[in-house]
Amino acid sequence: MAVYINEPSHTFGEYLLMPGYSSTDCIPDNVSLKTPLVKFRKGEQSAISLNIPTVSAIMQSVSDDTMAIALAKEGGLSFIYGSQPIESQAKMVARVKSYRAGFVVSDSNISPEGTLEEILVLKKKTGHSTVAVTTDGTEDGKLVGIVTSRDYRISRMDLKTKVKEFMTPFENLVWAPDNTTLKEANDIIWEHKLNCLPLIDSKQKLVFMVFRKDYDSHKENENELIDDFKRFVVGAGVNTRDYAERIPALIAAGADVLCIDSSEGFTEWQKIVIQYVRSNYGDKVKIGAGNIVDKEGFLFLAEAGADFIKIGIGGGAICITREQKGIGRGQATAVIEVAKARDDYFEETGIYIPLCSDGGTVHDYHMTLALAMGADFIMMGRYFARFDESPTNKVNIKGNYMKEYWGEGSERAKNWQRYDLGGSSKLSFEEGVDSYVPYAGSLKDNLSLSLSKIRSTMCNCGVLTIPKLHKHAKITLISETSIIEGGSHDVMLKESKQIIGS
Ligand code: RVP
After folding, report:
1. In this structure, how many other beta carbons lie within 10 angstroms of the beta carbon of residue 198?
2. 448-473 burial: b if 16+ Cβ within 10 Å, else e
3. What is the dihedral of CA 411, 251, 382, 16, to 10 degrees?
């Protein structure tokens, strides 16, 4: 007979946190959001900890190198999407690792034979108005000029005009050698009243750009997630098919941590990938696995040797797995059960395996709930897709700015490896949709607001750390009527406000 679980599974929106006693030192400034990323033994520290408990989803529409840099600057981590050729994924990882705070690898490049029209397309795509002109149009080609919006006037020029005719040529540029420090670069920028300074090597090849605004913002990021060599920490997604080629390339590119990206992780395929890592790299290479939704799945991946375990099936904003296959579980119930299994496992073995709640985080307070229920960090797709730093287009739909957001199981992403169950069938039906999410501005502004809500809620709960929140949170299931009571009700709103974080 089939196993029946007759208790309904619940999602975050059905729970609330209840306050605990808060002493006078329980203030948001005293809260630490530091959290372990990979497993560790009792009494030891995790080899990698996040400074904030958020990671961005392993998705084409969410996590590229730009997102990874922006999130690491704030103390979190991105897993660069794996549904792309190995070389391009490794290149993204390498770009994050070679990023020196304040030093940018130019993302807007063109050859002198390009046209004004192409400059305008590039500007629309990247949102940047400074374009490097290199002989071959690449980010590290020989620098022959720069184009900024001051170099052309669309109303007076033919769109077919060649870049070489209106760029500021190399001989008129202020530039510096590639070993220039950030402080020196900044001095040059101020002395010459520049917006940007190209750094070139001995062969005149473009290495970095230093922008005035990046120098300013760098000074604000004390929480950034960096390795021993002061490089940003970055993760990468892998699959259960081409792992023997992909993993070595990602490790060579400098990936700090890997994660098997799969809609369903309770499979022998995951064990095989983890075994591959252990037999080739021992414990040096860290790899997370998932997704699972119950104790059995957790124990399987724990025994298989996963460094962290990801929870969640079917809760993602763009996910239709539950509709298509009838597979999944309410995210809150899944986190609660798996966290209990993790705590018992820790008791028995002395090994603490961090848990990641993945998908279905709609409101900021859902993050705090996920943490309170036992997650160590939270993976989000929709949340990050709304920001400037996500890789997708910003489009105007009926007067509102939106960003595109599509699932890895959609026809657009064609990430069949994520849904692979062996055999040769490729994505025979979709498990994700292609959608828009409201554009929300910069990652930094939105994330700091969300984190300040988490800190403040933790103070209400009377705790200053995530491990203490795990232990002392009081959580109540609420009725449907209480959910209605939770919003403004029985009043007529004077103006409709945009809901941030939803
Ligand atoms: P959300 O944060 O609710 O947008 O969910 C993101 C998560 O959804 C991802 O981390 C992944 O686990 C899942 N996902 C990604 N693509 C799809 C799909 O196409 N069904 N689901």
Report:
1. 24
2. eebbebbbebbbebbbbebebbbeeb
3. 130
For residue 425, what pLDDT is reported? 58
Residue 468 CA to ligand 1 center (angstroms) comes to 29
- ipTM, interface predicted TM-score of the complex: 0.99
CB 82 within 8 A of CB 237: yes
Q: Does residue 499 carry a pLDDT above 60?
A: no
Q: Domains in the chain, please, with CATH?
A: 12-24+31-100+224-391+404-435+461-486 (3.20.20.70), 109-212 (3.10.580.10)
Cβ–ligand 1 distance for 410 under 6 Å, the answer: yes
Find the catalytic residue in 329, 386, 418, 455.
418
For residue 333, the tally of other CB atoms under 10 A from its CB is 20
The continuous run of DSSP H or E covering 280 comes out as: helix 268-281
- 319 as an active site residue: the answer is yes
- The answer to whether the CB of 317 is under 6 A from ligand 1 is yes
**Residue 76 pLDDT > 90:** yes
In the chain, the amino acid numbered 399 is: G
Which of these, 430, 432, 446, lies nearest to 383 by C-alpha position? Answer: 446
User: pTM to 2 decimals?
Assistant: 0.85
CA 321, 59, 443, 390 torsion-angle sign: negative
Residue 26 catalytic?
no
Judge whether 301 and 389 are in contact, CB under 8 Å: no
Q: pLDDT at residue 448 above 70?
A: yes
Which residue minimizes the CA distance to atom 10 of ligand 1? 57
Give 141-184 pLDDT, tens digit per residue: 999 999 999 999 989 999 999 999 999 999 999 999 998 988 88
419 versus 17: the higher-pLDDT residue is: 17
The closest of 209, 218, 140, 216 to 175, measured between CA atoms, is: 209
